[in-house]
Each structure stands twice: as C-alpha cells, then as structure tokens.
Amino acid sequence: MALTAVVRIPTRALLRPWARLRDSALGWMEPVGGVEVSTQRFGSQRVLVEPASAAGVAVMTFKNPPVNSLSLELLTELVINLEKLENDKTFRGVVLTSDCPGIFSAGLDLTEICGRNPAHYAEYWKAVQEMWLRLYLSNLMLVAAINGACPAGGCLMSLTCDYRVMADNPKYAIGLNETLLGIVAPFWFKDTLVNTIGHRASERALQLGLLFPPTEALQVGMVDRLVPEDQVQSTALSVLAQWMAIPDHARQLTKNMMRKPTADGLLKKRDEDIQNFVSFISRDSIQKSLQMYLAKLRQKKG
Ligand SMILES: CCCCC/C=C\C/C=C\CCC/C=C/C(=O)SCCNC(=O)CCNC(=O)[C@H](O)C(C)(C)COP(=O)(O)OP(=O)(O)OC[C@H]1O[C@@H](n2cnc3c(N)ncnc32)[C@H](O)[C@@H]1OP(=O)(O)O
Questions:
Q1: Centroid of ligand 1 to alpha carbon of 248 (angstroms)
Q2: In this model, does residue 79 exceed pLDDT 70?
Q3: Residue from 178, 209, 226, 237 carrying the catalytic annotation
Q4: Were 236 and a residue from 95, 253, 272, 292 both cysteine, which residue would form a disulfide, CB within 3.0 to 4.6 Å?
Q5: What is the average per-residue pLDDT within 163-173?
Q6: Which of the 8 DSSP states describes residue 108?
Q7: DSSP secondary-structure letter at 225?
Q8: What are phi and psi of 159, to 5 degrees?
Q9: Atom 13, ligand 1: residue with shortest CA distance
Q10: pLDDT band at residue 42 using 50, 70 and 90 as cut-offs
Q11: For the segment 44-76, what is each residue's pLDDT rounded down to a tens digit?
Q12: Alpha-carbon gap, residue 85 to 135, rounded angstroms
C-alpha cells in the first residue's frame, strides 16, 4: 500500500524576504497554515524528493540542468523541501544527489553574482547563507551521494552532510576552488572545510583552490568513501541504514554540540557578512575576473 503522510509547512517559511517563491515551480505550496502532501513523491521543479524503500529515508535529487548551479530558485526550493522533510517526523535521513549526468553541482550560479545589482547580490547571498545554515544544522542525517563534479558551492553543500560517498571516477573533482576564480571563500565556507579536513590541509586547499580527484579527496578526508559510479546512491542508502541504528535524540544533540559554534559564527553576523559579500562582489576587478571565468567556460565548447 502506498505510504502517505501529512506534512505541515509553517506559513513563516513563506514570508522570508529572500524567498520570492515562484508558485508555478512549487505546486505543492499553499500560503495557508499547511498542506497535505503525499510522500510517495513530491518536491518542486528543481528538487525532487522521493521516499526510499527503507522507512524514514528520502532521496533529494537536484535537477537544475545543465550543471545544477545553485541559482536563487534552486536554493529556495532546496530549503523549502528540507524544511518539509524535517517537519514530517516520519523522515530521519536524506540522501542528497544529482540528476545532471557527471555533475553533482557546479556551485554558486555565476550569473547570480555577475552583472547584477547590489540588491540582487544581497538577496542571493542571504539565500546561500540560509541553505548552509539549514543543511549544516539539520536534525536529519544527511548523506551526500556525489555522482559527479563538485566544485565550490557544490562542495560546500556536500560538506554540510554527515557523510560523503563519491563516485570513483578520475574525471570528477571536489574542492573549494574560489581562488581560481579570483574570489575568496568566506569564513564560514572555510570553517566548514576546516571542520572536515583540518587546518593545515584547508589552508593549502583554499589558497591553491584545489580540486581533488576522488582518490585524493578520500586521502585528505574530504569524502568518506569511494565507490563505482553505479553504486553511489545505493551505498549512501546503506550508510544511512547504519546511522539509523543510533537513537535520534543522542545523535542530534551530539551533532548540534559539534556544529552549533561554527553556525553561530555566521548567525551572529549575518548582515555584516551580506554587506561584505555585496561590497566585495561589486568591485570592478572582481566582476571582471568573474566575467573572464564565465567567458572561458562558455568558450570551452567552441
Ligand atoms: C578578505 C575579504 C573577504 C571578503 C569575502 C566576502 C565574500 C566572498 C565573496 C565571494 C564568495 C563566492 C563563493 C563562490 C562560490 C562558488 O560556488 S562560485 C562557482 C564556482 N564553480 C565553478 O568554478 C565550476 C564551473 N563549472 C565547471 O567547472 C564546469 O561547468 C563543470 C561543472 C565541471 C561541468 O563541465 P561540463 O559538463 O563540461 O559543462 P560546461 O562547462 O560546458 O558548462 C555547461 C554550461 O553551464 C555553464 N556553467 C557552468 N558552471 C556554471 C556556474 N557555476 N554558474 C553558472 N553557469 C555555469 C557553462 O557556462 C555552460 O554554459 P553555456 O551552455 O556555454 O551557456
């Protein structure tokens, strides 16, 4: 028999200033106290959520072709779908993965941070912050099934997870490569990396903008396991099954104890961080670097 559940979506989620939701993309949302949703398969235009065969587990698949860049829309949908899963107490774990062949996520959408106005940069950065805070502090067990390239913001997203399984394909790479674009990973990107691979390895990786192929990513501790490409999702699900054996309250309190101080670093100065981002990204020299990088990406094909 089909499993169904009632999911309450708090109205406050609809009122956040950055969440200029496009109703057409989020057919399941209604601006009233809540809405009934079948957990058979739900989600939105760019984020598909499917319950896995194991009870209490969902697979969240990003489908923002061609490269799953983290556009404002994708970020917004991600946060709303995560909140929906968190509010539905039947779910305890989520696998995050991609529908774009060979790409987990190309990171922040460069068209959101290049050639726009300061108000847009501020709105976009707030959405990036929100994505990080929500994932990093989620009470759910999150496992990243990294089935492709995973640079910059894509890497950040995977680093918020509790465990990372990556496809063992030397064509793929993962890392915070911001300096290669002439930009700087902000302190909370850096903190997330330091918490994962340690200070010295982060210092080197961040300065050089290193993108690690899978074997090196495993060595440095950026991912936890490599598997053949066709086993990424199934392995992520079996990892979750192991984590599910731990009592939720103990695991959640432990996760919070480990991560809250890092998240507080941003929570205490969110507005200042937005201002820093806007003034940095609005500089002519930074905009030029980004334009050149985008042009190179676009020329690659031709
Ligand atoms: C002390 C002061 C400190 C102040 C600090 C304050 C603030 C901090 C400031 C800034 C922080 C910003 C942090 C930024 C984080 C990011 O995530 S930036 C994004 C970085 N991403 C990348 O570098 C990845 C770029 N993409 C690729 O390498 C490749 O596209 C690929 C993902 C490996 C896939 O390769 P392939 O399959 O060959 O696909 P194509 O390269 O042909 O790409 C297809 C089309 O997609 C476009 N595209 C690719 N990536 C992006 C992207 N990130 N955003 C937007 N668009 C992207 C690409 O141009 C192609 O488009 P066309 O089809 O040619 O139009």
A1: 37
A2: yes
A3: 178
A4: 95
A5: 98
A6: B
A7: E
A8: -70, -20
A9: 185
A10: confident
A11: 999 999 999 999 999 999 999 999 999 999 999
A12: 12
DSSP string, 112-180: GSSS--HHHHHHHHHHHHHHHHHHHT-SSEEEEEE-EEEEHHHHHHHHTSSEEEEE--TT--EE--GGG
Q: Is 157 exposed, middle or buried (0-12, 13-18, 19+ CB in 10 A)?
A: buried
Q: Are 140 and 210 in contact (CB under 8 A)?
A: no
108 is an active site residue: yes
Of all atoms in ligand 1, which is nearest to the CA of residue 109?
Answer: 54
Residue 25's pLDDT band (boundaries 50, 70, 90)? very low
Ligand 1: residue whose CA is nearest its atom 40? 297
- The residue type of 171 is K
**pTM, 2 dp:** 0.90
| Sequence-separated (6 or more) residues with CB below 8 Å from residue 108 | 69, 70, 128, 152, 153
Active-site annotation holds for 178 = yes
Give Cβ neighbours of residue 265 (< 8 Å, ≥ 6 apart): 187, 188, 191
Catalytic residue among 74, 177, 210, 240: 177
